[in-house]
Amino acid sequence: MKSVNILAPQDLRVETAERPTLTEGQAIIRIKYCGICGGDPTAYSGKNPTCKYPIIGLGHEGAGYIEEIGENDKGLKVGDEVVLEPYIPCGQCHQCQQGRYNNCTDIRVTGVHSVGMMREYFSHPIALVHKIPSEISLERAVLAEPFTVGLHAATRAKVAKDDVCLIIGAGVIGTMAAYAVKHYGGKPLIVDVIGKKLDKVKEMGYEYICNSTKTDVVSWLAEVTDGHMADVIIETSGSPYVIKEMHQYCAHGARIALVGWPHTPVEVNTIRLMQKEVDIYGSRNSCDKFAEALKLIKEGFLPEDQLITAFVPMDEINETMQKMMEQPQDYLKVVVEIG
Predict the structure, then answer these.
(1) pLDDT for the residue 46
(2) Is the pTM of this model over 0.90?
(3) Which CATH code, of 3.40.50.2300, 3.90.550.10, 3.60.21.10, 3.40.50.720, is assigned to 148-282?
(4) What CA–CA distances, in Å, run from 78 to 64, 71, 129?
(5) DSSP 8-state assignment for residue 64
(6) Domain boundaries, the chain
């Protein structure tokens, strides 16, 4: 079988690998599609501090068919179309015992800490395999994993009806967070530095957008909120500047969910955050959100035609990664066709 491997920074190869064999508690999935996460190009370039090389089978946004499976209590069978939850917990640590398996102290994310999904056949724990409703195509289902990240971030920030929610970053996760906010009844306001990304968000029907290279965010927020500022901030960019200034964007008693990964040290104005009694939540991966994501996709909540920029074959992934690094404004979600 074929597998997309990164042997070293900018050394990505489609190589032949041994097909996995069925073991107890696992299912063998014939992967059909795998989305390229925003972190994958940084793994390709060598700028992702969480990655260790070689990365065998890049990717963690897989969708496909069950090829082999043993007895299970989920009613899954050979031929079922499924998506895969990529966060493999230990099941033993305190956080796992508390039900927060996404925050496992020894978590293994596929394509980051363990073998990834950009391969023709993939072995995965049955507990993390989710059947796709018949109304959803595999092409649409590949959006489930990034959508769960947005849903989790909005849940961590306790988004409620009529909350003014400032979303920093109009990439895939920021856009998914905007849909999550909309689902929970909040009012999304979206900020980015790339005009093309904001244009795409505007095409999806979001009214309140701000290009922070052209408009002062604090003044804009004060204007559109009548001086109230944001009840919630969902920070998906990882920008050290944003994190340093976020105390200016939020209302007293606000909640902040930190989703983006800064690549340099950050400064935080703890005095102003304390004076405003702001709650800050880390938001990592997702927890128990796949069923909710699939239900909303089934109901047509996500415009997949606008969210998915392109489908590319495995043998074009090197060229695609280069383009995504050089021209990030031209891409939202890119999906690799496996096989």
Answers:
(1) 87
(2) yes
(3) 3.40.50.720
(4) 11, 11, 12
(5) E
(6) 2-143+302-337, 148-282
